[in-house]
Amino acid sequence: MASSYDIAVDQGLAREAAWRHRRMAVRSLVMAGCGVVLWLAAVRIHLSLTNIITGIPNMADFFGRMVPPDFSNLRSLIAPTIETVQIAAWGTVIAVVASAPLALLAAHNTAPHPSVYFVTRLFLNLLRSINELIYALLLVSAVGLGPFPGVLAIALHATGMLAKFVAEEIEHVNRGPVEALQAAGSGRMQIILFGIMPQVFPAVVGYILYRFDVSIRSATVLGLVGAGGLGFSLITSMKMFKYHETAMCILVIILLIWAADAISSHLQKKIL
Amino acid sequence: MNMNVSTHDRIVSVAPVEKMPIVSLVKVSKTYIRGKLVALTDVSFDVGHGEFVVILGPSGAGKSTMLRCINRLAEPTSGQIFLRGNEITAAPRSLRKARQEIGMVFQQFNLVTRLSVMMNVLCGRLSYRSTWRSLFYSFTREDRAIALECLEMVALGQKAFQRADTLSGGEQQRVAIARALAQRPKLILADEPVASLDPKIARQVLDYLRDVSQRLGISVICNLHQIDFAREYAERIIGLSQGKLIFDGPPSALTDDILNQIYGPRREGTVG
Amino acid sequence: MQPRLSFGGRLRFLLYLAGGAAFLAWSANALELSGGELFRSLPAIGRYIARMIPPDWTALDGLWGPTLDTICIALWGTVIASAIGLPLGILAAKNLTSSRPLRQASLAILNVLRSISELIWAIFFVSAVGLGPFPGALALGVNFGGILGRLYAEAIENVDPKPLEALRATGAGRVQTILFAVLPQVLPQIVSYNLYWFEVGVRSATVLGMIGAGGIGFELVTTIRLYDFRQTSAILLVILGLVTLIDQASALLRSSIVK
């Protein structure tokens, strides 16, 4: 009884040791590799704990100049807040309108021709990879200050993200209903409207809400380059060294994003 | 009296019979929602060293609740529970010690499916290891020997390094038994261990459970709703109905009359 | 498929829709948006784009450094984010932390971290440790820390509770339970999130340079300020290439994690 276990256990221990050492060797190699990469990166960007510690008095100073926030400023921030939301709203709406056709062109199963698919995907990647802020910077340079370039900036980036998401949803659609419609002799547009759209609808609406949430977040900073909204108030107050107003702006931004998140996730739950 | 100590001092096959019961329940009651839902009423019994006790009753009778009160996965509303003479309280240190001596086997195995079989069994040794050591997922050689031995006892030594979810249902339950054994428990609680398994596999698992109990002198309290299994495996049967203990005796004393009492019509407001 | 809405539900939906449309119409007016405005600005945009073509590839000289900086900023940003997000995420998870105030406090901290844009954080950290890529990494780390923390908390809350219960029953301590029952379950998701947000981090890091926090952004802004638009487009294309590359690599790694 016990003795027969002894042999099996010893064998098992030997096997286990071998297996464990193999795994540990691989893991150590991977971890060492990651460690080297991280260390090199740290050196490159001058990562330093001591710098953070010596920087604490500066941070405290920064903080001290901002606290307490200037609540009397609250009235004048209402308009920029609304403007921020409006910029995000219109940016998202334009993105939704533009994404619909683009998504269809960028999905394997609905693109008229493989070359169209590739070109559209490339175009969407271009749109996605450039940050809203860079768009805003370029557009402000092109058409002047104000909320208009902000709206376009958000629309451009959001179109890239949204269209790609919808395209992937379209590609993952369940083939069953589509085939049924094809067998019934439906036209291409009908197949899209009745076979594909209903399937992707919930996920897409959820993503649109998420995108709106993200857009509000981006819209708050677009003002830093002059594209309107709370960011503009923020950078203005900073340039005038009115740090208490800056703090108020930041507080309002936090509240706005928090509210947008709450509404967005509430609506997303209702959709699901 | 057979006292068989293995050469590596890992197992003591049969220990001298102790006079003190392993576990004692004294008037244990459990109610939910401020007394509106009664799960257990004044349940009292002792379980001796090495006994294989089956708790029989329909679902909703309170079997699960009672078992979970013993290792305090559920809090009894009143009454006391003693493990080898010491009361099991909610105090963290004594609770941890008590749970160390009580192994539990669940209906749905409750294994960590992504981990290997070996690692799952080693989890039974966690209460013996410091938190610091566990941070590195490290166990002692003794731990690993014990784990392999427990796996051999349920005839799964060859599958030690596979991922737990590659095993069949019956095999996974045996791994769960091995995990409980690795704790070197005095008592094993089995909550409907074979309800999810088909009869042939179920018998296999119950065979292992009984075998292990006899060989190592571990007391077993096993919840079952299948009457024929109860008759086959129990040394002693405790019948529970609507939260009350209504039978306590050997399988031979289980008459049809008593069975009718146990499985009779149910009143509303009881929970299993 | 869409659930059937009751009459009241349909009415409410239409009201929301009408409200939304009204808001948009009002906004368009307030922001001076209109088809006409767009139309009129198209020539300006067109001329702007014309000045960017063809790209002046000489901009690539000396771009390797900033590009590498951008990647390193994103890398360390993600690492710092995980280091901040994991403990806070554990504290914020309903199934791991029983103290409600502790959970809410952690959640509140995470919310503040993610609500303040990484740009604002960057400004803050620049004032603390000076210009360069370091404050950029810190800013990214802190902002993404809030985001990852919430994602981790959600993932932890969705874990299968049964192994957790089993481990508690063996007498394992709290930390041990987390290590052996929770982490193995959420690890693939954690890795997936890290890869995704690293990708987002690269895109964000390209912008941080605009306020002096290192990376390609600085070069980009310089070319715009010097009206060197052909170089601008070259740099934009480099950014495109970089992001696409990382996007593909990340997607590849993520799909191989799904085991």
Descriptive account of the structure:
By secondary structure, chain A is an all-alpha fold. Chain A folds into two domains: 2-47; 67-271, MetI-like (MetI-like fold), CATH 1.10.3720. Helices cover 84% and strands 0% of the residues of chain A. Chain A contains ten helices and no strands. In chain A, helix 3 packs antiparallel against helix 8 (188-222) and helix 3 packs across helix 9. The longest helix of chain A is centred in the first third of the chain and has 43 residues, at 2-44. The model of chain A has no long low-confidence stretch (mean pLDDT 86). Chain B is α/β, with parallel strands linked by helices. Chain B contains nine helices and ten strands. Chain B has helices at 63-70, 92-101, 117-122, 131-135, 141-153, 169-182, 199-216, 227-233, 256-262, and strands at residues 23-32, 37-47, 52-56, 78-83, 86-87, 102-105, 187-191, 219-224, 236-241, 244-249. In chain B, strands 6-7-8-3-9-10 form a six-stranded mixed sheet, sandwiched between helices. In chain B, strands 2-1-4-5 form a four-stranded antiparallel sheet, with helices on one face. Chain C is an all-alpha fold and 259 residues long. Chain C folds into two domains: 7-50; 58-257, Orthogonal Bundle (MetI-like fold). Chain C has helices spanning 7-30, 35-50, 64-92, 100-115, 118-129, 133-157, 161-169, 174-208, 216-225, 229-257. In chain C, helix 3 runs antiparallel to helix 4 (100-115) and helix 3 crosses helix 9. Chains in contact: A-B, A-C, B-C. The interface between A and C is large, with 61 and 64 residues.
Number of domains of chain B: 1
Tell me the CATH topology of chain B: Rossmann fold
**Helix-strand sequence of chain A:** HHHHHHHHHH
Which geometry of chain A do the CA atoms define?
flat
CATH-derived topology of the largest domain in chain A: MetI-like fold
Give the overall shape of chain B, derived from the CA principal axes: globular
The helix fraction of chain B, in percent, is 25-40%
Task: List the SSEs and their pairings.
The complex is a heterotrimer of chains A (272), B (272) and C (259).
Chain A: H1 2-44, H2 49-66, H3 74-105, H4 114-129, H5 132-143, H6 147-171, H7 175-183, H8 188-222, H9 230-239, H10 243-271
Helix pairs in contact in A: 3-6, 3-8, 3-9, 4-6, 5-6, 6-8, 7-8, 8-10, 9-10
Chain B: E1 23-32, E2 37-47, E3 52-56, H1 63-70, E4 78-83, E5 86-87, H2 92-101, E6 102-105, H3 117-122, H4 131-135, H5 141-153, H6 169-182, E7 187-191, H7 199-216, E8 219-224, H8 227-233, E9 236-241, E10 244-249, H9 256-262
Parallel strand pairs in B: 3-8, 3-9, 6-7, 7-8
Antiparallel strand pairs in B: 1-2, 1-4, 4-5, 9-10
Chain C: H1 7-30, H2 35-50, H3 64-92, H4 100-115, H5 118-129, H6 133-157, H7 161-169, H8 174-208, H9 216-225, H10 229-257
Helix pairs in contact in C: 3-4, 3-6, 3-8, 3-9, 4-6, 5-6, 6-8, 7-8, 8-10, 9-10
